[in-house]
Design brief:
7 strands, alpha/beta, homodimer
């Protein structure tokens, strides 16, 4: 499998998992958080699929296409840990859907970051909410859900926050 | 359609067109040229699909994953126009397959670059060779071929060099 094949597979898995997550929270009110805005493609996809929901995006800096940058009130710039902790004051227990695409080229560092931010994300999540992401993460309230058909285990992850 | 949808469609179109081009030159000997190495994903794909063929990659500078960089003898760094013109001495009339992914965010500039390099690519192509690319290009010897099923016209292009 070439890097092109592998890249396409990853994007298809990402989209399928996000779409599944969006449908799983259809009946649950609450905002969406995008942890890792990056180039803004998944932010745009979430915006397209979730209609009128508020979406708050976290990143270290803005590297997204200008059309895919949220307004200032929905853009939380800085270290993920600091900004997620800070967001607890306004979003704690309210978030219906979290998408966390935080992987870099360094697998060990990406997993370590996932482990660090999982409890901070958990503090923002509403009971019954869905967390979808590219790194293995863990929280006492989270139950791992099966992936959409055709996606290799470990390529992406979906969790439901227990009620 | 979100930017994620659109990006996935473009990559799928790119892969399908490259695969079609590779199969079209199966019986034609000659090297491959990759005009625009970029991140190296399509170079890796061409390498994976074309087996033992020589692949020469052109780009302004190396921005590819280290595993997707050709050796020095197959890497032609500099302005596309200058380097394609220079390559005519060794590759003129010999190339079986050219993949040219040269688009930037600026559509007008990308199309102008395509128009400029088309005759330079043409000079390298063997009769019966295939040119596949992301910009509309034109040369007297080139005949545009239909795209693989499901690809929107204008998203990618395939030409056969008349014999």
């Amino acid at each position: 499998m070439s890097r092109l094949d592998s890249f396409i597979r990853r994007l298809e898995a990402q989209r399928a998992c996000i779409n599944r997550a969006v449908s799983l929270v259809a009946a649950l009110p609450g905002p969406v958080i995008e942890v890792g805005l990056g180039n803004g493609r998944t932010f745009d996809h979430l915006r397209d699929r979730t209609g009128n929901r508020e979406i708050f995006a976290f990143d270290r800096q803005v590297a997204a296409h200008p059309a895919c940058v949220p307004d200032e009130a929905h853009l939380l710039l800085g270290d993920f840990r600091a900004m997620l902790a800070k967001a607890a004051a306004s979003l704690g227990g309210k978030v219906a859907l979290c998408h966390a695409d935080i992987g870099s080229g360094d697998e060990a560092a990406s997993q370590a970051l996932g482990a660090e931010i999982a409890p901070l994300i958990d503090a923002l999540m509403a009971p019954g909410g869905i967390v979808v992401g590219d790194q293995p993460m863990r929280a006492a309230r989270w139950e791992e859900l099966p992936l959409p058909a055709g996606i290799e285990p470990g390529r992406y992850f979906i969790w439901r926050v227990r009620i």
